[in-house]
Specification:
The protein is mainly alpha-helical. The protein is built from 15 helices and no strands. Helix 5 runs antiparallel to helix 11 and helix 9 packs antiparallel against helix 10.
Length: 348
């Protein structure tokens, strides 16, 4: 054994590049999550007003009586224990998050914020989650075909039309659809998530009512979103089909479908996957404008109501959930990158 040779067992095992990449990204997202949690703690304490004072005012206006000292102290402790120092409040806040205690709503006192969130979350997940997946699949599929057949009749028709649709303001499209299909034609309800005269439950009439009320908001989101997926996938496919590995696959005599799906589209959709992950992360936050226009009972409408009524605990909870889901979705996207991109899978 020469002096230059390492001793047996002393050579450090080389870690695959993808694991190093994911380790770095995980560290970044953990730091980002801590920053978001801390910011979520600090911002409400910098805002004007006192939640406890607002609750006391509501109680006094409702009952017409003065609130005793014990009740006042209990309400103050409920909304952050202002007599404690900032560090103590911060640790109590972290403990509440660990048990998913999001506090108490000011507007709907004494209803816990978690109850309000769980009431609106299924509606948002149903509407925004479904439409996000549909918009991604529709836009990515059409963009893949348009990019593969760049310059064809399909491409010259779809691409300019998509650019025109994408230029229409999102809220304007929702208002236009509401005016035409709900107000003039009367095909769909003007607002709400279901028929209030029906009992809530997993039965045929109620589910049909949910589909009827959600059709217009869903169509608005899909129509507004698929254009961005289409243009991004089309441009990336046009670039990818000129790469050497795609030309080599074609020179080998592989079928056009296999070349498109296995070589060109697989790499062209990587940017779209990142955008899709971010869109999924935004599902929890809801489609704010759509839910406001259609008065749809989701997280977005809950956030809008909280902003109007200065319900800080609700705003704080929605911000926290939205931030955490966006970070988690991006971490998943990075993991998919590591699996699909051969440059990351290489050992180094």
């Amino acid at each position: 054994m020469t002096p230059a040779d390492p001793a047996p067992g002393s050579a450090r095992r080389r870690v695959p590049r993808r694991w190093r990449f994911l380790g770095r990204r995980l560290g970044f997202y953990l730091a980002a999550a801590w920053s978001a949690i801390t910011l979520n703690f600090v911002l409400p304490r910098l805002m004007p007003g006192d939640p406890a004072a607002a609750i006391i005012e509501q109680l006094q206006s409702a009952g017409g009586q003065q609130v005793d000292v014990q009740t006042l102290e209990a309400i103050q402790r409920l909304f952050g224990n202002p007599d404690a120092n900032l560090w103590q409040q911060y640790w109590e806040y972290l403990g509440q998050l660990a048990t998913f205690d999001l506090g108490t709503s000011i507007t709907y006192f004494p209803t816990p914020v978690a109850d309000l969130v769980w009431q609106g979350l299924p509606w948002t997940m149903l509407l925004v989650g479904t439409t996000t997946v549909l918009g991604f699949l529709l836009g990515t599929g059409l963009g893949m075909v348009a990019g593969w057949r760049a310059g064809s009749r399909f491409d010259t028709l779809v691409s300019p039309l998509t650019i025109f649709v994408s230029a229409i303001p999102y809220f304007w499209m929702a208002l236009l659809g509401l005016w035409v299909f709900s107000f003039l034609l009367g095909w769909f309800p003007l607002s709400g998530g279901y028929d209030p005269d029906l009992p809530v439950g997993f039965n045929g009439p109620f589910l049909l009512s949910v589909l009827h009320y959600g059709a217009m908001p869903a169509a608005t989101i899909v129509f507004s979103a698929f254009g961005g997926w289409l243009l991004g996938m089309r441009n990336m496919t046009v670039t990818t089909v000129r790469e050497d590995y795609v030309l080599l696959a074609q020179a080998k005599g592989l079928s056009p479908r296999r070349v498109l799906l296995r070589y060109a589209a697989r790499n062209a959709m990587l940017p779209n996957l990142t955008g899709f992950a971010m869109a999924l992360g935004g599902v929890v936050g809801g489609a704010l404008l759509t839910e406001i226009v259609f008065s749809y009972p989701g997280i977005g409408y809950l956030m809008y109501a909280a902003l109007r009524q200065r319900d800080y605990p609700v705003m704080q909870a929605v911000f926290f959930l939205t931030t955490m889901t966006v970070l988690l979705a991006n971490l998943i996207a990075d993991s998919v990158y590591a699996l699909l991109d051969p440059r990351i899978r290489e050992e180094g």
